[in-house]
Amino acid sequence: MALYTYPGNIHIHSTYSDGSGSIKQIASHAARAGLSFVIITDHETLEGLAEEGLHSKVVTLVGIEINRPHSHYLAFGLTEPPASDPENPQKVIDAVRTAGGLGFIAHPFEKGSPYLEKGQAYPWKHWPVFGFTGLEIWNYSSHWRGLHPSLLRTIYYFFFNRKAAMRGAPPELLALWDCYNASGQRVVGIGGSDAHAFIYRLGFLPLHIFSYQYIFSTVNTYLLLEEELAEDFQTAKAQILSALNEGRCYISFDSLAKGSDFNFYAVSGEKRYLMGSALVFTPGLTLEAKVPVKSALIKLVRNGQVIHTGSGSSLSFPVQQPGIYRLEVFIKPFLGRPRPWIYSNPTFINKV
User: Fold this and answer.
1) Fewer C-beta within 10 Å: the chain N or C terminus?
2) Under 8 Å between Cβ of 29 and 60
3) What percent of the chain is modeled with pLDDT above 70?
4) Is 24 helix (H, G, I), strand (E, B) or coil?
């Protein structure tokens, strides 16, 4: 069975809200970054829907980011914007689901920095909530902003070593993700950029804070498809939303290395189950992984706990018991600690 991987960037703001680029400009930057799709999520508006389509050969979808002061919620596949309700986000989740859309909780544990945007942060404030499609488990802009306790370090990271600031998906967010999945609510993990390409002026010099071109090379979400992404826009849109809904996707920090051609699947007899699948445990079941670098550190996680660690470009693990299995992949540098790189979505192996 042939498999195809398609990189995309999710959670992008355009001039329809507080981004600096038009939708066509964003798609052009995405094409130069080698992306196959983007999802625009402007604040409280779906005005950009009229511009959905293929731009620069990039499948350009328009969603929405709902709630402004906190409890941000990304919704895809809608035709009308739901009413915001940050004090009752469950109502927003229910409205998106009723309308047939997909909904993802955005940067739920966001932390601000006093040296960036005056410490502003937009965390999720009301728990528990249910019925959402997934979680944004790694948001580049949000994560980067929350890691800078000093002005000197902020300046160093921004101008000289942006990769060093990224430490992987926040552990508390991974724990939340695992907890929801263990409770019986299947939750899809995605990566986001929260791209705005803000333009500040230092005197007469314009300074882009994470240009679209740059940020499209950071935290991306890759889709796994069993058929090629269609050239027809509506068909491609359906493929993308279906893959996101089913968890046939993974997150890659492409600043370290492109995440193309990664795969994680279960094999039972002659049948292969992609990540996001649910299957029944049977003797002889194995988990297989393919990693697009030769010297990766691969951690297999079951029910939130690391149960196996290996090195190399592949993994073959005989499953001994049911559970919820996912992978975390790290790149091993010549010096220093392994760097978090790829997070798979889980495979659900059930008793019956």
Assistant:
1) C
2) no
3) 95
4) helix
Q: Which neighbouring-strand residues pair with 297?
A: 311, 330
Instruction: Give how far the C-alpha of residue 116 lies from the chain's centroid of Cα atoms, to the nearest Å.
Output: 23
DSSP state of 194: -
pTM: 0.95
Range 122-127, long-range pairs (CB < 8 A, 24+ positions): 122/69, 122/70, 122/71, 122/72, 123/70, 123/71, 124/70, 124/71, 124/72, 124/89, 125/70, 125/71, 125/86, 126/71, 126/87, 126/88, 126/89, 126/90
Residue at 202: amino acid letter:
L
| Residue 147 near residue 114, CB atoms below 8 Å | no
Domains of the chain: 4-253 (3.20.20.140), 263-350 (2.60.40)
Q: Tokens 């939303």 appear where?
A: 241
pLDDT tens, position by position, 78-109 = 999 999 999 999 999 999 999 999 999 999 99
